Amino acid sequence: MKKKIIIFTNDYKNVINLRYDLINFLKINYKIEVLIIDKIEKKLKNIYSLNKKYKSFNILKDIFLLFQIFFFLKKNKPDLIINFTLKPSIYGAITSSLLGIKSITVVTGLGSIYLNNITKSLYLFFMKFTFYLNSFVIFQNKSDREIFFKYKKKTKIINGSGFNNKKFKFIKKNNYKKNFKFLMVSRLIKDKGIFEYLEAAKNLKKKFNKKMKFYLMSSPDNSIFSFSKKNFLKYGKDVKFLNFSKDSYLKYLRSVDCFVLPSYREGFSKTLLEASSAGKVVLTTNVPGCRDIVINKKTGILCSAKSVKSLIFHMNYVYLLTKSQRSRISLAGSLRVNKKFSCDKINREYLEIIKKLI
Question: Under a CB-based contact definition with an 8 Å cutoff, are residues 77 and 4 in contact?
């Protein structure tokens, strides 16, 4: 009889976009069930919802949520629970510890709460407490682990969630200074560098006019840290805004020349991996979770975070690269991410840890 693992995360989108390949991989050896906090529109086999909001905090509602998680785990009796995202990481660790269930927390990035000076100290306190309760902790980059652990005991760095390298195959497309296209794909939150990208596009559009095109693709995000859509109105002439879907994402990714992510901090950016694999020159910031993917001027370009001036300079730098220079960088980037960060490699690393625990 297969041992049971519960994947615990915030919402259904997180499961589909980031955990799907891992779940299918683990199904070969284990019985996999998924628990999410948020509501789900329709019932799906082995996916359970607690029908609660996860982006807000209310002490009474969250205490009730804790009890829900506790009784769900008690009823379903998993051999292991793997917690992704903030609330599942904290509440999953607490409840599994009380029930004597082994648990893994995966730190997929420190996020907006860590970047906010008001909430940073509280976040660090709760996460350190959480890690103490876990059987094992996985970080996606070295910088994040060094904040919490000086030693490697019961921790490991697994670089990201992997990506489907069969889906994001290398495409040789290299326009040379003709309709040069930039694309940013991101949630609508300031910490992704939305403002910097829009300002840079506005500036470059004035200089190069029809020679450059700028795209921003996203899904609505109701987080308290969201960058309001009203702010986009003044950039409408400079940037084309696109609704995210898997089909449109692939379509535009194949057609652009440079993929931009001016994030303030990442766990390990999946979109950078996908864009690099597909043969795009990637331009991102010199911060944890981005610089771990890109070797500056060899497999992509790094700029300063929170700096419109730096982003403009480096977007212009990418545009002025010769055809052979861009081809060399994009090919090197694709080869690197396919060798080091594909789903197949990442999933095997997860499996090694799981086998040691159960």
Answer: yes
Q: Tell me whether the CATH fold assigned to 4-162+342-357 matches the one assigned to 180-340.
A: yes
Which of 240, 195, 207, 215 has the alpha carbon at shortest distance from 316?
207
- Dihedrals phi, psi of 244, to nearest 5 degrees: -75, 135
Q: What is the mean pLDDT of each run of 10 residues along the chain (358 residues)?
A: 94 88 95 92 81 78 93 96 93 96 92 75 85 94 86 87 91 70 91 93 87 87 55 78 89 94 94 96 96 96 97 96 93 96 95 96
Q: Which long-range contacts (CB under 8 A, 24 or more apart) does 206-211 make?
A: 208/180, 208/319, 210/179, 211/177, 211/178, 211/179, 211/180
| Pair of tokens at residue 106 | 């995966």
CATH class of this structure's domain 4-162+342-357: alpha beta
pLDDT in tens, 27-55: 999 999 999 998 886 667 889 999 887 77
**pLDDT at site 225:** 47
pLDDT of residue 174: 58
**Domain spans in the chain, listed from the N-terminal domain onward:** 4-162+342-357, 180-340
Query: For 255, how many CA atoms within 13 A lie in the half-sphere containing its CB?
Result: 10
Report CA-CA distances (Å) from 198 to 84, 111, 205: 31, 21, 10
Residues in the chain: 358
pLDDT at residue 68, as a whole number:
95
Q: In what order do the strands lie in the sheet with 155-157?
A: 47-49, 31-36, 4-9, 80-84, 102-107, 136-139, 155-157
Residue 7 parent element (H or E): strand 4-9
For the 180-340 domain, the top CATH level (class) is alpha beta
> What's the predicted TM-score (pTM) here?
0.89
Name every residue whose Cβ is closer than 8 Å to that of residue 237 and which is 6 or more positions away in sequence: 205
Residue type (1 letter), 238 = D
Work out the number of other CB atoms within 10 angstroms of the CB of residue 348: 12
